User: What shape does this take?
Amino acid sequence: MRKGSRLSVTQIKETQSDYFKKLPLVVIQHSCPLCTSKDLQPLKNERNRFPKDHRPILELFDGAWIQLLQCKTCGFGFTKELPYSEDFFPSRYDTHFDAANEANNNPFKDKILDKIIADIEKYKPAPGKVLDVGSFAGVFIRKIAKRNYTSSGIEVNPTMADYTKNVLNLDVQKGTFLSTEVDKESFDVVTMIDVLEHLVDPKHIIQKVKGVLKPGGLFVIKVPNLWPQYYKQKIANLIGISDQGIFENFGHINHFSPRALRYALENLGMEVLEDQVSDSEIWPKTNLKNILKNHFRTCFNVPFKLIKTIFGINLGLNFIIYARKKDISQ
Assistant: This one.
């Protein structure tokens, strides 16, 4: 455990209260961002530990306690405290990645992306226009372009957006999805692969996706699964292969279960086609700890997929949902 993690509930509440009185750049979420219910339960407290990297907007939050809440109505999990400065999340994700290295093929991530592309071809055969929200190093939009789709991306990380646009010559816009102008009913497919867990205001994001999809268009979402991730991280912390939390530093501000995401999509007029257990991404094998993490993640994939096949229950550490915009003309 990290220093400070054994504070009593009273001390944590006092720490949070004192801290956020001094920092008016935070909105406190008192209702569910997906369904607006106020029937909430606290799940966990974690303490931020931002590196001292000379970005003042991030250093303001170093050491701050944040809380994970869950909606009892729809099952959605979310951070109670949420930075609302326009500079925060672009700074949060402008970390020092090696863009050229991130753009290289990764056999394990390629397997996940190839499976998604095969499913897209099943539901929405080429040709068609695909928008990848959170395109990062452009791996997905390059891959799907080779399958006769016209692909483009939106990326908030300025380093990655500039690299993919100016070096790789990909069609990528720099910015957040909600702040980027996208023509209505202009895309056959919108993908968010390991993205929606990071984005403020998921309800309005789903609404905007629905607006930019053509009638019958496909929405593909891959996200971590709340409870499997919660218990996986507790075990990883206990056996010493990780000292991270599941939402510290506002990394994952949204925590979906298949039920919660299905609830949100259907209530916004989308038709959910299926949810799948997704394979886990693999850490670079640079040290023994990463090798142990990889085995820890992958050893559960087979039983999780078997449980989904037999019982229809999705316990995967990550899951994928495929949803369709209803075509009211039919």
User: Anything to note?
Assistant: The first strand starts at residue 26 and ends at 28. Residues 9-88 form one domain. The chain has a mean pLDDT of 87. The chain has two domains: 9-88, 99-325.
